[in-house]
Amino acid sequence: MRLSISHETTYHYDDQVRASIQYLRLTPHDSERQQVLSWQLALPRPVRAQIDPFGNILHVLTLDEPHEAIVIGARGQVEIDEKRESEHESQSSLPFLRFTRLTEADEAIRAFAVAQTQKRTDRTALIDMMHALNEHITYTPGATAVDTCAAQAFANRAGVCQDHTHAFLACARSLGVPARYVSGYLYSDSSEHLSSHAWAEAWIDDAWYSFDVTNQLAIPERHLKLAVGLDYLDACPVRGMRRGGGCEQMHAKVVVSPSAPIAVPAAKKKPVPAPMIQVQRQG
Amino acid sequence: MIRTFYDEMYDAGGIVRPHYREFARWLGEAPPELLAQRRREADLLFHRAGITFTLYGDEQGTERLIPFDTIPRSIPASEWRVVERGCIQRVKALNMFLADLYHDQRIIKAGIIPAEQVLANEQYQLAMQGLNLHRDLYSHISGVDLVRDGDGTYYVLEDNLRTPSGVSYMLEDRKMMMRLFPELFAAQRIAPIDHYPNLLLDTLKSSSPLDNPSVVVLTPGRFNSAFFEHAFLAREMGVELVEGADLFVRDDRVFMRTTDGPKAVDVIYRRLDDAFLDPLAFNPDSMLGVPGLLSAYRSGNVVLANAIGTGVADDKSVYPFVTDMIRFYLDEEPILKNVPTWQCRKPEELSHVLANLGDLVVKETQGSGGYGMLVGPAATAAEIESFRARLKAKPHAYIAQPTLCLSTCPTFVENGIAPRHIDLRPFVLAGRETRVVPGGLTRVALREGSLVVNSSQGGGTKDTWVVED
Questions:
Q1: Does domain B193-304 sit in CATH 3.40.1440.10?
Q2: Which of B80, B302, B382, B429 has its CA at 20 to 30 Å from residue A231's CA atom?
Q3: How far is the alpha carbon of A239 from chain B, nearest alpha carbon, in Å?
Q4: Inter-chain CB proximity B252 and A233 less than 8 Å
């Protein structure tokens, strides 16, 4: 399946921002499951790409001229191999056993993980646990915040994909299964869930397998992976800081659509220059 | 009286050891009023110099003077040379371990240390994986904590490879002794240590591939317990003392804000823990760090001393493997001994520990500063039971060691002079070469019988002499 993505994030500030810096994980890389046909970032100024500690493509955008808005655009096309269920990697999975503040497993989560799996750690057991978590934490937009941890969402039984993923990571790690956070895009024909999405991967039989708790999917056929990490903070698309600016309004618009290969001839695979949006006047 | 402790000044027969003879003679001749007056002078001078330290767990955030004792701890030069070689050997192996761990992981493949022990450790930093550092050095400044058992044998109690502190006390204690008792330094050859700031600056400069890199000291700020030391070292080295807010990152380079505009920074002697370095990569609530610092570091545009991720090598759960590291990387026998250690994560070792809690010292693998530690022989029954419960709940978070006797050194106390337990922290600098200034920081447990020398637990310090014998 070929997915076309158009993702635009706009930050507006009440006051002028004196300086800002953003870590952007908005560029997918090729893997066994996905092939990036074209990808383009539209940023206020050119930025060199680097690889972050988790192997993600990272852009660090620094703006030190006063600005009142930042517009970050990402668009491109990626071919997804729908049949591939798992991905291999040469790096050790063991660092993904550790808990973080957002994925700490409290007594309730540990007990839940044991009850659901009987301490089995095969894929079937983890799929059962994924379904049980979906049932336990009802998908409720607005119920949690960006810094809500797994234990809080689990106790309140409400959350969004980020909370579902953190709870799954806490459960898996408490069973001794390395697990990581995935941030990316999801094509969904219903508009129920955000297209900018998060799910989990767990290390089973020497490969990473996907667990989308929110959509109860264990085969990531419509999932485009952007970045991985120990939790949301490592993998999130935009993490930034600024000096000044007062209150901030953020608007994100994501359109994920399937594009039939026939409708996109090879010649059009060439990246189309995205409009460069100036948020600051130079000179 | 049965002597169970090794005393630094007197041998088992109560005779003054040769390297203390000169001092003992002087002490015997000095009028007691003079000594008392000099001690008051020392207190006053320390106060005036602002050498204080903030006590954690104290609601008032009280700044305290670290008690300074005017009776030095003295080490014969021949003995010191062995300790020095042992410390250098150890730090070399630990640096090789870190380089290996963040690259080929040969030591794991060789089956010497279990993969999970280090890779699942919170202190293992993925950010360091595959990153090449100049000279392959991770711990540029290390503090090796040594104690002596009943027969005088030196043991390494722990390695400090994150942000070892205390060197300012070592330097100030010496200045104080030379000022109060100049006659002692004229009468015998005591190895100088005042070149430490120069060696430190040289070490920091040699950590960068640049010819004349610009160096700064990064402090968490004046509320940090070691702020005095950060300011002291910056001043002694003649470099800027900065807080996170004084630095910024632009296009993967670090700059310092100055009145003359941005100035590039090449080496950061950071006295800030990994978790606080970059709020965009680590703890997002950190107001102490520099947003973007990790990207600049990973791009190779700035050196951090010490490197990120050294904590995995000085973690108490990794400590039992250090002697094997020395054999593995250097093909040498360890010069300094490790204290035998039970790893509570292993069920059979845990049951031994639980059965002998009253005799053992139990420590948190992540703890430091003497907080969260049980000294069995000195603990109440209630304290032991509380630790028993903690051990059972989280065995992997603890190690246990036999209670070492810890050597004693005569110390001024309320009623004259009495033996008090001491340890030793030499500071090892790794750059073009690996060096140690003679001696180190001697900490003394001022409470009678106490084995906890940490300043946060009521410990004091002594000047440390290496005396030609």
A1: no
A2: B302
A3: 6
A4: no
